[in-house]
Design goal:
Radius of gyration: 16 Å
Strand content: 25-35%
Low-confidence stretches: 2-24
Number of strands: 10
Order of helices and strands: HEHEEEEEEEHEHE
Distance between the termini: 7 Å
Oligomer: single chain
Mean pLDDT: 82
Largest sheet: 8 strands, mixed
Number of domains: 1
Strand order of the largest sheet: 5-6-7-8-4-3-2-10
Shape: globular
Length: 201
Amino acid sequence: MTRILAVLFVLIVTVAGCAQDTSKASDPGPMQTSTSTLEPITPAGIAAVVQELLGADQVAGFSAGGEDDTVAVEVRFPGAAKDILVVAVQIEGDAPVTSCADLSDRMTGPGACEESADGTILASGVGEAFSDENLSGSTVMAQSVNPGTGRVVFALYETYGKRGVLDPAALSAIVSDERLAALTAPTTNEAGARLDVDPAR
C-alpha cells in the first residue's frame, strides 16, 4: 500500500513553491455546506462508495490503508488476483495542483484534464505499469482536486492483463463522487460498516 500511495503522490505532486499547510483538512464537496452533521471519512466509507459505483459483483474484497494525510482503501477484483485499485481521500494539506497545466507530462499514455465552473480539476489517463514484474499490464489514474475547498480524491488502478476491468471514465466517476471527502455524511460511513474491510497491511 505504501508504494502504491507513493505513486499516487507522484501523480499529484505539489506545484513547486506551493507550501503545504498540514493543519488544513480538505473540505466536503460543494453540496455539503454544513460541517455540523459531517464526520471524518473512514476506509469503510470509501469502500461503500466504490462498491456502489462498481457493483458488488465486481469487487472481491477491501483492505484499509492510507498515510498521515490520507484515508484510503485497496480494492481487489474477482478473477484478477494481482489487479488492484487504490482510492484515497486527502484529509490534511492544501490542494496539490491549481490547474490542468500543473499536470502536464505526468503520464505516458492518453489523458484528459478539465476544469469545471466551481474550480474542480478532473484529470485521468493511462500510463505504464509501475510494478517491476508487471511486463504486459498498465496503470489507470484519476484525480479530482478543488483548490478552493481543498477537496482532493485520487485513484490508481494497476492491471496485469492487456485489458483491465476499469478505464479512465470509471475512475473519474469514483473520484468525482462528492461523498468522498475528508468530511462526509454519517450515512457514508454507516454503509461501509456493513462491509468486510481488512485492516491496513
